[in-house]
Specification:
There is one protein chain. Helices cover about 50% and strands about 15% of the residues. By secondary structure, it is α/β, with parallel strands linked by helices. The protein has a six-stranded parallel β-sheet with strand order 2-1-3-4-5-6, sandwiched between helices. The chain is built from ten helices and six strands, in the order βαβαβαβαβαβααααα. Helix 3 links the parallel strand 3 and strand 4. It has two domains: about 140 residues, Response regulator (Rossmann fold, 3-Layer(aba) Sandwich); about 55 residues, Orthogonal Bundle (Arc Repressor Mutant, subunit A). Helix 2 packs parallel to helix 3 and helix 3 packs parallel to helix 4.
């Protein structure tokens, strides 16, 4: 007998939730067991219902999707999360993946593509929309606009670099390293200056490209 995949849908638009439910319940191996209209509700209900796969929008009231993913994975690491959003910007892609999303699909995906992505994520496989996969690969292979400064990163800067790549905020990094948030900001500024990078996303992608961090951390 085919195992039924228990799916949870988190999206602040009722029409999306209704459409997802109607589409997925046509699949003999899928059952939509719950839904949420905001990130806070998503965290609470996912922890209660323990679905196999969560479809997670990124822009929701009360708690955004990335923070919801972070909280769910912290309390129930085995939850498989598939982002379903309209946003394909690097500022959303990388933090969502680092927070623990196993897949990232766009809302213009074809129904069969989305269904296949859910099955992939349920199997523990990554499922990236072609547009997303291309962006990630491009960023990972893109050299810096300028070569890094001859001044190497200090051991503490390398610690901060790794934690930035894990998607931690300055406050979280400060708590983990037992230093002030202002000191973290200074380290991040020095890292960006030495590596000629313009954003935290570029810092995180640099760490991935150079082997200081990985998506499995």
């Amino acid at each position: 007998m085919t195992q039924v995949i228990r799916v949870f849908v988190a999206d602040d638009h009722a029409i999306i939730r209704t459409g997802m439910r109607a589409m997925l319940e046509l699949e003999p191996d899928m059952d939509v067991i719950g839904e949420a209209e905001n990130g806070r509700e998503a965290v609470d209900r996912v922890l209660l219902l323990q679905p196999d796969v969560v479809l997670m929008d990124l822009v929701m009231p009360e708690l955004d999707g990335i923070e919801a993913i972070t909280q769910i994975k912290a309390q129930r690491p085995e939850t498989r999360i598939l982002v379903l959003t309209t946003f394909a910007g690097e500022d959303k892609i990388f933090p969502a993946i680092k927070a623990g999303a196993l897949g990232y699909q766009l809302k213009d995906s074809k129904p069969d593509e989305l269904v296949n992505a859910i099955r992939q994520v349920h199997r523990g496989e990554s499922a990236l929309h072609p547009v997303i996969a291309r962006k990630v690969l491009q960023e990972l292979s893109r050299p810096a606009a300028e070569p890094p400064t001859p001044d190497p990163l200090t051991p503490r800067e390398l610690d901060v670099l790794r934690l930035v790549a894990q998607g931690l905020t300055n406050d979280e990094i400060a708590a983990q390293l037992v230093i002030s948030e202002a000191t973290v900001r200074t380290h991040v500024s020095h890292i960006m200056g030495k590596l000629h990078l313009a954003s935290r996303t570029q810092v995180a992608l640099y760490a991935l490209r150079e082997g200081f961090a990985s998506l499995d951390e």
